Amino acid sequence: LCGPIRIGIHNLLIALHFEPHIKARSLTSHEFIIPLSTHLRNNLLLRSQNSVEQQHYYATTSYIPSMETFLAVRPKLIKEEDFKIERERKLLVPPPFNVTCLKEYVMNSLIDAIEKSSRHLRDPVGGSYANWLVPLLQLVDALLVMGSLEVNDIQQLLRLIDPTSFGFDTDKDFDEGLLQMRLDEPVKLQLCFVLQHLCNYQLQYRIEGIIGFSEEFVGRLQS
């Protein structure tokens, strides 16, 4: 497909199936309503059995856990089976879509696109690197905001952004990620959105760690 059609299809997919949930998650991205429960102690930053090296690693790196380990109250993706009344289903639920298959397709496509783009293709898909990468980054960003990416997906995304810092030990031929490539302005803008949302998740995890530490510390002082 040509570039405008590719971008239009991806925008239609996001607007039709995911936009309400993305907006709800974005509006609460800076709200931290965290229940005080024993699950706060599961934060990796607070584990007493961590070695000094592990404590330094978790405190200074860009570690982001799986989305299900976050405790802050955030809007959840409304599914069709959550409603029993037909009228509510029609008014409140977007058309169903297989998010798991979409995530697998997008991650594989993004890996293929960036690895091939680092070799300076003459004729990229869609006619330009912007038409090739922007729709894929938009979908990845949408899945990231929705909380649909797992730990392996996030680590893979970080590797594609900067393999020199987040690359795997098996990466010998892949040393040029998005940060090392000469990108068009639309790709840079979309990459900034992805980095912003990654930082939001890391901030949320650290805030949950601080609250978990404070809750236990105050509890010990009062006992």
From TrEMBL:
Top-rank taxon: Eukaryota
Pfam family, one: RYDR_Jsol
Ryanodine receptor junctional solenoid domain boundaries: 1-223
GO annotation, biological process: release of sequestered calcium ion into cytosol by sarcoplasmic reticulum; striated muscle contraction
Protein name: Ryanodine receptor junctional solenoid domain-containing protein
Any one GO molecular-function label of the UniProt entry: ryanodine-sensitive calcium-release channel activity
Entry's Gene Ontology cellular component terms: calcium channel complex; sarcolemma; sarcoplasmic reticulum membrane; smooth endoplasmic reticulum; Z disc
